[in-house]
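REVIEWER CHECKLIST
Item 1: Sequence provided? yes
Item 2: Single chain? yes
Item 3: Sequence as submitted:
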Amino acid sequence: MRLPQGFRAAGLPAGIKRTGAPDLGLVVLDEPGRAAALFTKNLLVGAHVTVCRDHLARSGGLVRALLVNSGNANCATGDAGVQDARDTAAAVAELVGCPPHEVLVMSTGVIGARLPKDRVVTALPSLVEALRPDGGEDFARAILTTDTGVKTAERECGDARVAGVAKGSGMIHPDMATMLGYLFTDARLADDPRAQLAAANARSFQRLTVDGDTSPNDTVLLWSSERAGLVPRLDDALESTSRELARAIARDGEGASRLVTVRVSGAPDEDAAARVGRVIATSPLVKTAVAGRDPNWGRILSAAGRAGVAFDPTRALVKVGATVVFADGRPHPANEAAAADHLANEAEVLLSVDLAVGNAAADVWTCDFTAEYVAINADYRT
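Item 4: Structure as written out by the authors:
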């Protein structure tokens, strides 16, 4: 992955993960660049959330470096954990030559264990030495936890570029966004970059769920060198990049065998459509039905009915793929074989509900719920 102008990245093993896999990533700008971030709404927050909020406030939203570790969430570790995060930021700042408050540090992994700060600090000189403009893939690999592969996306936007990196596979639900996600660009940001990021997030990561669990470390960062200046359609590029990353996370959900798009139409407004879609996408009964290749329209319609959006179920229409399985207030059992074929033969399946009360629509992305998800999370700390 080619990073936008001014960015360099690297990733390597620092000994945080017992497997010896890469677990420490760094991205650096030649000069401080404007940035904005969105953080978890969970009342339990990782140490990095506290430190990043403080650093962004103190720097006026200027960021010179980003350090991310995987394998340890540095969450629920008290004041000592916050100090560990501050100390690693200071160590990065000394190496790259900037104030500590221009460094963001982020963590992902197991909750409740102290960050092995000494290992991180020891690895930093090698990490800085490894920085290069084409180091995005190494950074993307270093931030993974239970992910099966890197998640990156790229867009050209006039003379500018948007490069996105994300991690996430489990503990994924749209409450801000359960993941670490990064949007790097060299385009000039809006006067209010946080609002610009929130707009892209609302139609992408906010419409993503794997298992209904939100993380205390959720963070999405927008960061620009602004070297390319003002370009048209940057907002579209940010949104489409974010949507591609969100779909990649859903596709790589823990134990998943199917990417599922839940498409809700006929809603009174877009927020209502997204709300119904999230309830359907989070339903364990819907997700296990997809895993079993069962076009169980009753589970889909029941989930829609408890989403808090008023509609008449007798006027609703439910489809699996292109096949109608419920319409005119009754099921269509003759169509279920074709619907089951869609679930069995397509790696990406589509569940559609038309509420028939308006003209708004929204897509939400999830995955099926298999026994492998249980196995992964039953063994996560052992």
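Item 5: Key structural point noted by reviewer: The mean pLDDT is 95.
Item 6: Recommendation: ____
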